[in-house]
Amino acid sequence: MGFFYNLLRFVKIVLITAMTILFFRALLFPNALDMLVLFLLSFVLLVMFISRPL
């Protein structure tokens, strides 16, 4: 069970890192595709935090 918690934590860190890089890229060179991908990554991260075990 501990392996999956560590894996989930690692995936969350990777998602947050990707979102941060994409956010700064979207600030410098905005386009619709970046905004769409950023929205989808935010949605995935939100679902991961909502569905975490209590």
Q: Can you characterise this structure?
A:
This protein is an all-alpha fold. The chain has one domain. The chain is built from two helices and no strands. The protein has helices spanning 2-28, 32-50. Helix 1 packs antiparallel against helix 2 (32-50). Keywords: Membrane, Transmembrane, Transmembrane helix. The chain crosses the membrane at residues 7-26, 32-50.
List keywords for this structure.
54 residues, mainly alpha, 2 helices, 0% strand, transmembrane, transmembrane helix, membrane
Summed up, what is this model?
This protein is an all-alpha fold. It is 85% helix and 0% strand.
Report, as a whole number of angstroms, the end-to-end distance: 14 Å
SS strand fraction: under 5%
Number of domains: 1
Tell me the number of helical segments per DSSP (H or I, 4 or more residues long).
Answer: 2
User: Would you list the SSEs in sequence order as H and E?
Assistant: HH
* Computed structural class: mainly alpha
Mean pLDDT: 84
Shape call = elongated
Rg (C-alpha, Å): 13 Å
Low-confidence stretches: none
List the SSEs and their pairings.
Blueprint: H1 2-28, H2 32-50
Helix pairs in contact: 1-2
Keywords: Membrane, Transmembrane, Transmembrane helix
Transmembrane segments: 7-26, 32-50
